[in-house]
Amino acid sequence: MTIRQVAEALGAEIAQNEFEDAELAGAYTSDLLSDVMANAHDGGALITIQAHKNTVAVATLVDISVIVVCNFRPLPEDMLEAAKDEGIAVIRTRENQFTVSGKLYKALNKE
């Protein structure tokens, strides 16, 4: 499942759309960025409410392909610019992390 297919499946908006539409290798849900650095996997999605530039920095360290921001948090311009510079997609949804995690788990394991 590609990043654009994930956004469509979640009914999420693509807030930063300059990225390679890669196949996702999985997902990780956390709001603690040190936890993400220790446990997230390359080529996956990060599901979080952390909407700031540091989230992009951490995503870059662990080669995250897409950041899924939940609860329709506002997205600061510097975060979106950093994500654009790194080629990381940012999508935003009104749903919470639990719901998004379940939907994405189901979608990724269908294939």
**How many domains is the backbone divided into?**
1
- Strand order in the sheet with the most strands: 1-5-4-3-2
User: CATH H-level name... which superfamily?
Assistant: HprK N-terminal domain-like
How would you characterize the largest beta sheet?
Answer: 5 strands, mixed
| SS summary, helix count | 5
Q: Order of SSEs, N→C? A: HEEHEHEHEH
CATH architecture: 3-Layer(aba) Sandwich
What is the 3D form? Answer: globular
Arithmetic mean of pLDDT: 96
Give the CATH class.
Alpha Beta
Question: Would you tell me which CATH topology applies?
Answer: Udp-n-acetylmuramoylalanyl-d-glutamate--2,6- Diaminopimelate Ligase, Chain: A, domain 1
Beta-strand residue percentage: 15-25%
Helix content: 40-55%
Low-pLDDT segments, ≥5 res: none
How many whole angstroms does the radius of gyration measure? 12 Å
Question: SS-based structural class?
Answer: alpha/beta
Distance between the termini: 8 Å
Total beta strands: 5
What's the short version?
The chain has 111 residues and is of the alpha/beta class. The chain has helices at 3-10, 33-39, 53-61, 77-86, 97-110; strands at 13-16, 27-29, 45-48, 66-69, 89-92. It has a five-stranded mixed beta sheet with strand order 1-5-4-3-2, with helices on both faces.
